[in-house]
């Protein structure tokens, strides 16, 4: 895991990043700015239990792509889940908390994941471990109103105008961040220009 000092504000942004793209970077940039983060951990996962990973490129390739996409020194590309043999987000967050006491973490995710968040293993535990920032994605703006997670934890929603307070709050606490949105998706890239990434 990247090194952090006590009191630092860190965003945790995980995904298979197959491949990483401008939409991912935009989510990271919005989170860093709006939450006033000292670091954002770009966590490249070994796989995704909810997706077909039979054609997933090697982890090393996805790490390299992610590093090339993130010149901001506050973004720390890491794949510590593979070392610890962690598959599920709830276990990842528990691991991070165990190794990093007295640090302020926020789980970052795109709004496109919010609608199906309740299908994630131990999704309630995730919401009870660290605050969550949901960043707007095309076609997913209304997910924060209709998703099971949003309804279940409606009482813990923080107004977007107070987003900078999120890293200092105990879980459950979450907010929805509006902002610029990129229409790019990993699926579209794989279907159209995957060979460009393989040559990179």
Give a short summary of the structure.
The chain is an alpha/beta fold. It has helices at about 20-35, 60-70, 80-85, 90-100, 125-130, 145, 150, 185-200, and strands at about 10-15, 40-45, 75-80, 105-110, 130-135, 175. The longest helix is centred in the N-terminal third of the chain and has 14 residues, at about 20-35.
Report what the structure shows.
The protein is α/β, with parallel strands linked by helices and 200 residues long. It has one domain (9-116, 129-199): Rossmann fold (3-Layer(aba) Sandwich), CATH 3.40.50.620. 36% of the residues lie in helices and 16% in strands. It contains eight helices and six strands. The protein has helices spanning 22-35, 59-69, 80-84, 89-99, 123-129, 143-146, 148-152, 186-199; strands spanning 9-15, 39-44, 75-78, 104-110, 132-135, 174-177. A six-stranded parallel β-sheet has the order 3-2-1-4-5-6, sandwiched between helices. Helix 1 links the parallel strand 1 (9-15) and strand 2 (39-44). Helix 4 (89-99) runs parallel beside helix 5. The protein is globular, with a radius of gyration of 16 Å.
């Amino acid at each position: 895991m990247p090194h952090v000092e006590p009191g630092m504000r860190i965003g945790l942004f995980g995904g298979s990043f197959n491949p990483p793209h401008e939409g991912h970077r935009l989510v990271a940039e919005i989170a860093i700015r709006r939450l006033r983060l000292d670091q954002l951990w770009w966590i490249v996962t070994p796989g995704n239990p909810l997706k077909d990973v039979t054609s997933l490129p090697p982890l090393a390739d996805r790490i390299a792509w992610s590093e090339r996409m993130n010149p901001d020194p506050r973004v720390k590309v890491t794949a510590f889940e593979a070392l610890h043999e962690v598959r599920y987000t709830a276990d990842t967050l528990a691991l991070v908390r165990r190794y990093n006491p007295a640090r302020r973490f926020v789980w970052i995710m795109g709004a496109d994941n919010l609608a199906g968040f309740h299908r994630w293993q131990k999704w309630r535990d995730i919401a009870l471990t660290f605050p969550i920032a949901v960043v707007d994605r095309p076609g997913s703006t209304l997910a924060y109103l209709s998703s099971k997670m949003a309804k279940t934890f409606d009482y813990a929603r923080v107004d977007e105008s107070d987003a900078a307070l999120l890293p200092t709050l105990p879980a459950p606490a979450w907010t929805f961040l509006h902002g610029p949105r990129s229409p790019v998706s990993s699926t579209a890239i794989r279907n159209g220009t995957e060979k460009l990434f393989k040559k990179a």
